[in-house]
């Protein structure tokens, strides 16, 4: 049986660790301090002697294929990028949520509906800590869910006020520990593809708190970005702008930079690869293929979110939220193309990410 020692050799040392936090969060010896997250988010031994070598951490790692077939069967995964029941565009009906959101607030609207109808008593989301930084948070009130809306890359105060290094990644899986501590039994998770996959593997194994995870909402992911001073300077040179003039950033088909003068810069994603976290170059999941519902900005008009319904549960949630907290559309009002053509755009983005990851893995 392979253990955390093997994860260090096979995943961490080659630089493949996504920092999702699954191994630390679900460690059977976590209450005894066997594993912990280091200052930079890297899992490590807290006390090596307390590790019972059960192998759980190894099995659920998104970089390990030990439970791949069981996980795909559980979510009825289909090639080339997971089960697709329907693609549509959506946005929150509440203008307050839309104003705070990045792409229409569809994720927040779905969470609010689930919370208002008593289907969840909490949601694992992220909340802003700095212009380019966020942290995982267990939202247990309506206000906390609304406060989590947005991509958390608003730089309206000017980058000159911030001298630290930032990352757009947040290890949301960590928040399952407070779920256990608070005794919550109905939770929704909003996460990146690697986080969703780790949680699905926990469900396959039937390990606590898998029975508390009622809904998995995934986010399209081109990669997560780190903003050191050097990378900020490089980004200014690539885009021909200054951070003090930036009001908002978003990732859709391209890296979008919104300036205070109203101008919007669209920078090809391959031009900002130098900011991408190293492990993200090896991830093959763009569209959160294991989620109940996947959300992203690609293919949708400004103020709308592209939504892929993947499971019968996800389809029921979307149908029930429609007209209550959520507005949907599948035409030119909300999408740049037809729904079928938009799905092809997402598939192309998914294929590019997969091919890029496969090429990079050959270099290891």
From TrEMBL:
Ranges for domain 4Fe-4S ferredoxin-type: 8-40, 41-72
Domain of life: Bacteria
InterPro entries, per database record: 4Fe4S_Fe-S-bd, 4Fe4S_Fe_S_CS, Co_F420_Hydgase/DH_bsu_N, FRHB/FDHB/HCAR-like, FrhB_FdhB_C
GO molecular function, one term: iron-sulfur cluster binding
UniProt-listed PROSITE patterns: 4FE4S_FER_1, 4FE4S_FER_2
Cofactors demanded by this protein: FAD
Keyword tags: Iron, Iron-sulfur, Metal-binding, Oxidoreductase
Organism of provenance: Desulfosudis oleivorans (strain DSM 6200 / JCM 39069 / Hxd3) (Desulfococcus oleovorans)
Any matching Pfam family: FrhB_FdhB_C
Name of the protein described by the UniProt record: Coenzyme F420 hydrogenase/dehydrogenase beta subunit domain protein
